[in-house]
Specification:
With 240 residues, the chain is of the alpha/beta class. The protein has 8 helices and 7 strands, in the order βαβαβαααβαβαββα. The chain has a 7-stranded mixed sheet with strand order 3-2-1-4-5-6-7, sandwiched between helices. Helix 3 crosses helix 5, helix 5 runs parallel beside helix 6 and helix 7 crosses helix 8. The two termini are 16 Å apart. It binds 5-O-phosphono-beta-D-ribofuranosylamine (GRF). 5-O-phosphono-beta-D-ribofuranosylamine (GRF) binds next to helix 1, strand 5 and helix 8.
């Protein structure tokens, strides 16, 4: 085994991917150690999994922040280092056609949430940030402050990108009538599910498969793929 990389994880839910990674670390299958787990939602099961493994946890409650910005847009204090013009020009999450108000309100609430995330994350000085079922997009404000020197933010997506980006990859794959489904690990960039692909695994969808079966097949592959991609990253870092 090589030198261990320090990784942080962000989650939104049950955390079965997180569990697979925690187990791979504990069994020395990968050269990594998870030093924190953050969630955008309080009380999710993934936080319990992290705590059980002795990992630091925190919550940045996106829903509350978004509601506060909506209720009192004039009372918002943006982070001192946030430049609306710069982030608006770089971001590729909302099209210009979404309109000024919507784009600026979106970026404002995300700036506040992302600053809170950065305040918790940056002190750990991690080599890699893992998005393990984190159901929020991240703006260039956050990405640029993590990706110092090289790409460090890895996401798992429940479809064979570039097909079916968005939040319901297995559902979209199933409803389209695909005969093959899969999962993708990629680095994130300024768009939604558009960054460079690091690995993919595929499975057959049989005639009688239900959406539940499709999700089950996909998740089982995610639990293999994510640790494999983290290990490849760790090996490449070890050589850098
Ligand atoms: C996974 O299917 C992942 O691809 C998607 O959200 C799901 C998270 O599951 N982004 P879990 O929280 O890891 O169990």
């Amino acid at each position: 085994m090589g030198k261990k990389i320090k990784a942080g994880a962000l989650i939104s839910g049950g955390g079965t991917n997180l569990q697979a990674i925690i187990d791979s670390c504990a069994q020395d299958k990968i050269d990594a150690k998870i030093v924190f787990t953050g969630s955008d939602t309080p009380g999710v099961k993934g936080l319990e999994r992290a705590e059980r493994a002795g990992i630091d946890t925190f919550v940045v409650d996106y829903r509350t922040i978004i509601q506060q910005v909506k209720n009192d847009p004039d009372g918002v204090v943006l982070p001192g280092d946030f430049d609306m013009e710069e982030i608006r020009a770089k971001q590729n999450l909302l099209p210009e056609s979404a309109g000024n108000e919507k784009i600026e309100r979106f970026l404002t609430s995300r700036a506040i949430a992302e600053r809170a995330l950065l305040d918790r994350i940056l002190p750990y000085d991690v080599d890699l940030l893992i998005l393990a079922g984190f159901m929020r997009t991240l703006t260039p404000y956050f990405i640029d402050r993590i990706n110092t020197g090289h790409r460090k933010i890895m996401n798992i997506h429940p479809a064979l990108l570039p097909a079916f980006p968005g939040t319901d990859g297995y559902g979209d794959t199933f409803r389209y009538g695909c005969k093959v489904g899969g999962c993708t690990v990629h680095f994130i960039d300024y768009g939604e599910d558009t960054g460079p692909i690091l690995g993919q695994k595929a499975f057959q969808i049989e005639e009688n498969d239900t959406l539940e079966i499709v999700k089950k097949k996909g998740l089982a592959l995610e639990w293999e793929l994510f640790p494999e991609c983290i290990q490849r990253f760790a090996e490449e870092r070890g050589q850098a």
